[in-house]
Amino acid sequence: MNETQRIGIIGGMGPMAGVLLQKLIIDATPAETDQDHLQVVCFTNPKIPDRTRSLTADGGKTYIAAIRDTAQALIKMGVTILVIPCNTAHARFEEIQNGLAVPIFNMVQASVDYIAKKYGPRRRVGILVTDGLLEAKTYQTALCEYNLNPIIPSPYHQQRLMRSIYNIKKGEQKSVLKEIQNAISELAGNGAETVLLGCTELSLYFEQLQKEQIPIEDPLRVAAQQLVESLTLSEESPSLMQVGGSTARLN
């Protein structure tokens, strides 16, 4: 692996997301020794405001500023690519990326691109996301651009899902898995052929959800795999790096 490449994880949204992403990066790396692994810096910043509440209160301005400050701290540590393990934060992806010296991996675009290539066009994709991301229509727009059909939960299941997401953050696990399964069942009943776990709190339950009758896809796992592949690609073409479905030129 190219030791000059360094991943910067903007963590803390929720508390386990950055930690899980780093583990998934390790798992995805074809390493035989310690020295074969990638350089990763994870900054867990619990002071980043709640993304859904910020989107409602000020259009996301407060969380954008906090994420950009965290990104700048990571850039000073020499990272060459950033990743935000929070789907909701991607509702303001362009504003966060604007003016930063290094590219941010676009987890939403990468996940939709992955689904489109894996399943083909017109796939009906159920999405489980926060209220903030649902209202921003970030995944709905991206899916439609790839000729995929988004399916969202009913208000009843969305409310229960959102409550479960906050319960995960509080460490209250009781009935959370069942609520996620109920939301998936509703999406499947409404025609979903694949379900996307569009919140990194839900990524914690990915393994337990593999028994569901329809495929479950996790953006956090897509990000880990593609980051590893991107850095391998950058060894062959040092000025280029795949960044969430597009190619970025590194200075």
Strand order of the largest sheet: 2-1-3-4
Based on helices, strands and strand pairing, what is the structural class?
A: alpha/beta
CATH topology of the largest domain: Rossmann fold
The coarse silhouette is globular
CATH class wording of the largest domain: Alpha Beta
Helix content: 40-55%
- How many domains, as an integer? 2
Mean pLDDT: 92
Total helical segments: 11
Main beta sheet: strand number and arrangement? 4 strands, parallel
Number of strands: 10
The CATH architecture term of the largest domain is 3-Layer(aba) Sandwich
Low-confidence stretches: 237-241, 247-251
Give the C-alpha Rg: 17 Å
Query: N- to C-terminal separation?
Result: 19 Å
Family: Belongs to the aspartate/glutamate racemases family.
Keywords: Isomerase
Pfam family, one: Asp_Glu_race
Protein name: Aspartate racemase
What does this molecule look like?
The chain is of the alpha/beta class and 251 residues long. Helices cover 48% and strands 16% of the residues. It has a 4-stranded parallel β-sheet, with helices on both faces. Strands 6-5-7-8 form a 4-stranded parallel β-sheet, sandwiched between helices. Helix 1 links the parallel strand 1 and strand 2. Helix 5 packs across helix 7, helix 5 crosses helix 11 and helix 8 runs antiparallel to helix 9. Keywords: Isomerase. It comes from Candidatus Sungbacteria bacterium RIFCSPHIGHO2_02_FULL_47_11.
